[in-house]
Design the sequence.
């Protein structure tokens, strides 16, 4: 990497040019192919994206995580201490920055959960913008940057559409983290840009504590190229983390670390399953990225993406084994793959230049290899999304409203496997079925303590995710062990059952 020359004139110099590992942008002979590809990819994106956006205002939950986050977002907005008491049957196991942001926005809009969905959706778009800016800077081409952004936008819609417009802090954290990466890539010699990068990385860690891959990549790059700048960056990052930690403890409560230590089982088989799904989806782009990295080993500016790529996949592999971990841990790897795949395109241009129809070949290369798995989902997604929009959303909203109204009408505590139902019913969060189940599996809680809650009929209403297609019987379920279900059927009776839920109330006098 170029050293910053001494003297005042150095500050006025532009950032260093792209390194030798990045080929020049497409020649004008491929302009038509680029335009045709962008048009085709824009249509693909719209076909995949319209339903996730249309679903954002829907008044029902996607998964239990939305209710989990909504409780703490509401608590932060109302001035409550998120970590004010030690965890027992519920863990606030995320840092609180996103809770305060979404809670504040929700207090303005009147719907915390929908506000969280919009924040997540805007963060999804922001990731594409910063990925594009990074690639544009490294590859000196707006086309390559736009292509990288489209890769991220299309891939996530096809790969894990549930996370597009989903009230959860992970996508927001990735957006802040990649903004920190951009600040470093933009001007690694500038103290201001380095400090901005460090602060953004610190904030991302206080949104989601697992987002360590991008800051680790920057730290490694600075260690190998600009060690004096590493001290500035690292000192700023540590100072920002200390300030955020002190604010968290002062504003949100002193049991912060207790809540982060949610007990979890670890399942290596889940790593294999998740990685298999991911690698099948990005197989061509992943291979292209690996080839590009093997061919370009210089420690130029683009080398930080290699560290980000390797680190993101290594970190994700570790976290994927934890109970409850999802494909979202692979998002940093997904966006790193998108950026490197875009930087590899100039080499592909040289390959097709000798073909008989170079423009046609290059247009196909831009649209097929990296997006084949996204195209494959269209025959299923298009009719499914149309059906869900016309039928599922109104039916699910009506079902959700009916169940939450019933839960609200029951006096006393409530247990909801679908946490957003209890939130909508105005019930406080007392019992997170996932957290309790993990505490039972890891020995953190004795099963007798939980059974005592049923024996005494502590909960005056219990809602379980129990599809009507499944037989009603006292057998173990995903978040409820066998002894719990057997005692539930003994001490409670079924009040009613809907398409997705079963609601129980106590059987008095038995």
Sequence:
């Amino acid at each position: 990497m170029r050293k910053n020359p001494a003297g005042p004139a150095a500050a006025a110099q532009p950032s260093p040019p792209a390194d030798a590992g990045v080929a020049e942008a497409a020649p004008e002979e491929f302009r038509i192919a680029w335009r045709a590809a962008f048009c085709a990819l824009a249509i693909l994106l719209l076909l995949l994206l319209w339903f996730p956006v249309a679903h954002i205002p829907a008044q029902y939950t996607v998964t239990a995580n939305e209710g989990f986050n909504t409780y703490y977002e509401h608590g932060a907005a109302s001035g409550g201490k998120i970590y004010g008491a030690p965890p027992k049957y519920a863990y606030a196991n995320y840092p609180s920055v996103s809770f305060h942001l979404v809670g504040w926005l929700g207090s303005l809009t009147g719907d915390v959960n929908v506000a969280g969905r919009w924040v997540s959706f805007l963060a999804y778009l922001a990731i594409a913008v910063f990925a594009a800016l990074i690639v544009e800077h490294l590859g000196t081409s707006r086309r390559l940057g736009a292509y990288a952004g489209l890769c991220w936008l299309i891939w996530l819609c096809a790969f894990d559409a549930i996370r597009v417009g989903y009230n959860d802090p992970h996508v927001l954290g990735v957006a802040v983290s990649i903004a920190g990466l951009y600040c470093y890539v933009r001007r690694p010699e500038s103290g201001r840009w380095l400090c901005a990068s460090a602060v953004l990385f610190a904030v991302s860690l206080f949104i989601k504590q697992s987002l360590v891959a991008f800051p680790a990549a920057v730290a490694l790059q600075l260690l190998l190229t600009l060690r004096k700048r590493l001290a500035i960056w690292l000192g700023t990052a540590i100072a920002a983390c200390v300030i955020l930690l002190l604010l968290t403890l002062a504003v949100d409560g002193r049991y912060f670390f207790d809540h982060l230590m949610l007990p979890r089982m670890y399942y290596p088989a889940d790593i294999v399953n998740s990685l298999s799904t991911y690698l099948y989806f990005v197989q061509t782009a992943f291979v292209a990225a690996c080839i590009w990295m093997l061919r370009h080993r210089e420690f130029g500016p683009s080398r930080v993406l290699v560290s980000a790529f390797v680190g993101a996949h290594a970190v994700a592999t570790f976290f994927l084994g934890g109970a409850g971990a999802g494909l979202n841990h692979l998002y940093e790897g997904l966006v790193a793959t998108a950026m490197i795949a875009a930087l590899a395109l100039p080499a592909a241009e040289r390959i097709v230049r000798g073909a008989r129809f170079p423009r046609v070949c290059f247009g196909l290369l831009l649209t097929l290899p990296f997006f084949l798995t996204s195209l494959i989902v269209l025959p299923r997604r298009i009719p499914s999304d149309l059906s869900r929009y016309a039928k599922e959303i109104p039916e699910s909203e009506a079902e959700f409203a009916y169940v939450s109204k019933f839960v609200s009408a029951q006096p006393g505590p409530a247990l909801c496997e679908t946490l957003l139902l209890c939130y909508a019913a105005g019930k406080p969060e007392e019992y997170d079925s996932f957290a309790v189940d993990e505490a039972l599996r890891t020995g953190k809680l004795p099963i007798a303590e939980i059974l005592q809650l049923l024996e005494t009929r502590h909960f005056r209403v219990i809602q379980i995710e129990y599809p009507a297609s499944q037989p009603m019987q006292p057998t173990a379920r995903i978040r409820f062990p066998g002894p719990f279900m057997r005692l539930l059927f003994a001490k409670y009776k079924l009040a009613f059952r809907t398409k997705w839920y079963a609601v129980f109330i106590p059987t008095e006098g038995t």
About this structure: Confidence is low (pLDDT under 50) at residues 1-18. Residues 398-506 form one domain. The chain has two domains: 29-58+93-376, 398-506.
